[in-house]
């Protein structure tokens, strides 16, 4: 599970670094460059939930793919969604995976996907803001992460070693 988090996060970092470089060049050397962290965290959370819960790559962080890829469109067009009681994104994902779920499960998956990624994005944004307002705590958190993770592999066991930064 940690690998999913790390893979998605690394994609977000690469995208953010590229975006910041582009903005730096286009800003003509201005000191302030804005980045919409809530939007970035929303994409990150959507991809993590997509991989973790649905085994599906939304490609939200990298914008490299759409929710429904062209290869899947043909399969989905064979299904008449206009007559479905639940013509939701979850129903599309379920159909693409070839499994059946009941209405209750579909509602729960919709809730998890929509509320889960938005809440996560808001929480991450608030945490970054609070760390920016408290440099001592930011440095303490950064030092712990550097010590625990260093250059080694990130595992569930590594996460358990975090004391100051907890999940």
TrEMBL record:
Q: Which InterPro entries match?
A: Cyt_P450, Cyt_P450_sf, Cytochrome_P450_monoxygenase
> What Pfam families does the record tag this protein with?
p450
What family is this? Belongs to the cytochrome P450 family.
User: Protein name, please?
Assistant: Cytochrome P450
**Organism this protein belongs to:** Eruca vesicaria subsp. sativa
């Amino acid at each position: 599970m940690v690998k999913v988090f790390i893979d998605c996060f690394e994609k977000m970092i690469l995208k953010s670094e590229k975006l910041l470089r582009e903005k730096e060049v286009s800003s003509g050397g201005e000191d302030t460059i804005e980045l919409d962290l809530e939007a970035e965290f929303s994409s990150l959370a959507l991809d993590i939930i997509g991989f973790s819960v649905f085994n599906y790559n939304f490609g939200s962080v990298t914008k490299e793919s759409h929710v429904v890829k062209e290869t899947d469109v043909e399969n989905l067009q064979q299904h008449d969604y206009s007559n479905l009681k639940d013509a939701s994104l979850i129903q599309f994902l379920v159909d693409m995976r070839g499994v059946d779920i009941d209405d209750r499960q579909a509602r729960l998956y919709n809730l998890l996907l929509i509320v889960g990624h938005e809440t996560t994005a808001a929480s991450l944004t608030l945490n970054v803001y609070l760390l920016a307002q408290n440099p001592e705590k930011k440095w303490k958190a950064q030092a712990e992460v550097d010590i625990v993770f260093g250059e080694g592999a990130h595992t569930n066991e590594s996460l358990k070693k975090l004391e100051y930064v907890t999940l």
